[in-house]
């Protein structure tokens, strides 16, 4: 039986650049992991193709899929459903290949519940930590606007705690490279599912642990 693939989840606040970074990474190539195409009820935009950018379906089809347990996760975002079909993820992981999801934060937390051994990457806007100090120190914005920004930043920072890694999206290519580094490192990790590493050493199974898929 092949070693089970790894699930990689890229998420982060709305507008941080998840879609842009994911597209850049797959366009560049060298991505030896499979992108899970999401299902959505939103209308295709110009140039988008069914089965390539998304599976575009009706609200009824989407709700049927939820009701029959066909979704790993789903969320409503600006009046439309977005979700990850379960079967593709399951089959691909079982075949030993790694799977990459790019989803919004509510969906990512559902995946964390169901597949806690996934690798959860949070994409952040640059200078998130400095935002609060800067806004207060500068004192040019109205208090209402400062409060709004701080509340938003605080919520974003709180969300970050639920992830394994934070990647700053300052420049698209740098963000892509950081994500690649995380994936490379995670592939060398001692698997958490093996209870007795010492015994594996004795029985010479360790060399299989980091073997390629
Ligand atoms: N939960 C969840 N979110 C998704 C999925 N696919 C895409 N999204 C997110 O849905 C949001 C809207 O995506 P989209 O309509 O393509 O617009 P854009 O990325 O804002 O240009 C983005 O934050 C995506 O990351 C999915 O399968 N599940
Ligand atoms: N590193 C970056 N530098 C500048 N602009 C960016 C960067 N990453 C993304 N963007 C821009 O930010 C906007 C939101 O990106 P998008 O990928 O749609 O975000 P998300 O999928 O997280 O909602 C887009 O206009 C995109 O071109």
Automatic annotation (TrEMBL):
UniProt keyword annotations, A-Z: ATP-binding, Cytoplasm, Kinase, Nucleotide-binding, Transferase
Claim: Cytoplasm is one of the keywords in the record: yes
EC nos: 2.7.4.8
Record-level GO cellular component terms: cytosol
Principal subcellular localisation of the protein: cytoplasm
Domain annotation Guanylate kinase-like: ranges: 5-184
Known catalytic reactions: GMP + ATP = GDP + ADP
Compartments (UniProt record): Cytoplasm
A Pfam family: Guanylate_kin
Family statement: Belongs to the guanylate kinase family.
Record's protein name: Guanylate kinase
Name of encoding gene: gmk
């Amino acid at each position: 039986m092949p070693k089970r693939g790894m699930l990689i989840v890229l998420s982060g606040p709305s507008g941080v650049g998840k879609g842009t970074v994911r597209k850049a990474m797959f366009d560049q190539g060298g991505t030896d992991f499979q992108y899970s195409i999401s299902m959505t009820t939103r209308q295709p935009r110009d140039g988008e193709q069914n089965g390539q950018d998304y599976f575009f379906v009706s609200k009824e089809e989407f709700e049927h899929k939820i009701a029959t347990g066909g979704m790993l996760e789903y969320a409503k975002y600006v009046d439309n459903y977005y979700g990850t079909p379960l079967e593709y993820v399951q089959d691909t992981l079982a075949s030993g290949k790694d799977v990459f999801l790019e989803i919004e934060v509510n969906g990512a937390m559902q995946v964390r519940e169901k597949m806690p051994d996934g690798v959860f990457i949070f994409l952040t806007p640059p200078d998130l930590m400095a935002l609060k100090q800067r806004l207060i120190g500068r004192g040019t914005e109205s208090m209402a606007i400062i409060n709004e920004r701080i509340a938003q930043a605080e919520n974003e920072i709180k969300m970050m705690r639920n992830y394994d890694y934070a990647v700053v999206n300052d420049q698209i290519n740098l963000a892509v490279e950081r994500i690649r580094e995380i994936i490379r490192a995670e592939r060398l990790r001692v698997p958490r599912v093996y209870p007795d590493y010492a015994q594996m050493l004795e029985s010479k199974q360790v060399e299989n642990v980091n073997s390629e898929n």
